[in-house]
């Protein structure tokens, strides 16, 4: 891993990157060999990249005008006969802040453009299938298929039927520990009941919660909330978030999260 070369690639975006050895953390996944985060210092935001000595970190594509790059991390196999593993991350600037998103391998990814396509939810990709037009237009925040705010895609569903008595107002949607996006009106259907607290931000199922209470009774004192994981949700009106421009949705839109949510470390909670 050439730390100086990596920093130079990020500088082409107008960003700063700090490369350092992987530090132990209670937030680091047990299998992880790289941690990439957005941090702040007195000079502003920067990409904090921590990698172990066996990780090969390199940039596959840089788009300075778009302020995005595609990063690949190759992990050397621990044993002979096993294949090396790869992870890819889209790093860039979205409206007001820098971000990093783990890219799903659901479609081949070799460039910034294909990474953006891979991050689209299946509901968006299926509606775009067969449509003509340049890829750049399909990657705007607003198209004829969706309106995007951060990791959330809002897809028009003019024919959906909702129960007016179950419409919630000023309702948050969030991913894990992220800041919530607040919806003027939200209607949800289905999903799994989960118990959420600071120690378990993505929630425990009813069975998992009961097992935890039995094994660790003191956990009952944690501030639990009963929420729904991965419901079908519909929103309309204003959608606000401190890091993004407020959008207004005319009519009901189905809520879909980018494919980074397919990781076990994140969940759609409502």
Largest sheet: 7 strands, antiparallel
Mean pLDDT: 86
Overall tally of structural domains = 2
In whole angstroms, how far apart are the ends? 40 Å
N-to-C SSE series?
HEEEEEEEHHHEEEEEEHEEEE
**Biggest β-sheet: strands ordered side by side in the sheet:** 8-9-16-15-11-10-17
Which structural class fits the helix and strand makeup?
Answer: mainly beta
Beta-strand content = 35-45%
Shape: globular
How many helices?
5
- Quaternary assembly: single chain
Q: C-alpha Rg, in Å?
A: 20 Å
- Find the count of extended strands (DSSP E, 2+ residues): 17
Q: Percent of residues in helical segments?
A: 10-25%
As residue ranges, the low-confidence spans are 27-31, 263-270
Q: Can you describe what's shown?
A:
The protein has 270 residues and is mostly beta strands. It folds into two domains: 3-119, no CATH class; 153-269, no CATH class. It is 14% helix and 43% strand. The protein is built from five helices and 17 strands. It has helices at residues 3-11, 112-119, 122-128, 135-138, 206-215; strands spanning 17-21, 34-41, 44-51, 55-63, 68-75, 85-94, 97-102, 147-149, 152-156, 168-175, 181-189, 192-196, 204-205, 225-229, 232-241, 244-257, 268-269. The strands form four sheets. Strands 8-9-16-15-11-10-17 form a seven-stranded antiparallel β-sheet, with no helix packed on it. The chain has a four-stranded antiparallel β-sheet with strand order 4-5-6-7, with helices on both faces. A hairpin with a 2-residue loop joins β15 and β16. It starts with a helix and ends with a strand. Mean pLDDT is 86; it is low at 27-31 and 263-270.
